[in-house]
Amino acid sequence: MHLLLVEDDRKLGTLLARVLTSSGYTVSVAPTLEAAKAADAEALDLAVVDRMLPDGDGVELCAHLRRASFEGPILMLTARGETRDRVHALDLGADDYLTKPFEIEELLARLRALSRRGPLVASLDVGPLHLDMARRNAFARGVLLPLTAREFDLLAYLARRRDQPVSKAELVQSVWEADEVVPNVVEVHMSRLRDKLGEDAWIIETIRGVGYTLRGASEP
Predict the structure, then answer these.
(1) Quick one: residue 13, left, alpha or beta (phi over 0 = left, psi -120 to 50 = alpha)?
(2) Would you give the DSSP letter of residue 31?
(3) CA distance between the termini of the chain
(4) β-pair partners for 137
(5) pTM of the prediction?
(6) What are the residue ranges spanned by the domains of the chain?
(7) pLDDT at 220 over 60
């Protein structure tokens, strides 16, 4: 996942970039509001934004990203924890708010939770599949699939990245909590998901040595 990290503290920014990269994210770092605004919103999956920047307020970036049709999650970092500050940031487009100082483990957990929500869309259609994101229902050719919550999260994540290769490591990081991960967890859930897709199991393609992709093309 491509993450925009907006942090003017060079030491903290370097630390966070290293941790996020080791956790599977592709990280673009911007130390200023101006640099962050120059980022390609369409290429981003999520953003971590410091509230206090040398050339402005990170909340302004939230509004800028939303105007640019960025629908991914935004996590705001700040030393200002007053309720009115949190409300203001959330009203202008932030999805979550983490007060400094914070533990790295909590930051990563919040990013995983935000990633599971995905873009703010009502539904997704890929091939014979229709996903109702609000009700968390998936249909194949109009028939409701009996998916578990985790199976729906897995299918929705692949659907949001249709026709793109998604590694097992990325799926583990984005769909599961750390304490839920056991050996072969992706393979087990993928097998169950394919069984429930039945004749439409072809839509999930295994890419040897990489992971999986959800095919947006018509049935072969």
Answers:
(1) alpha
(2) S
(3) 28
(4) 132
(5) 0.59
(6) 2-117, 123-214
(7) no
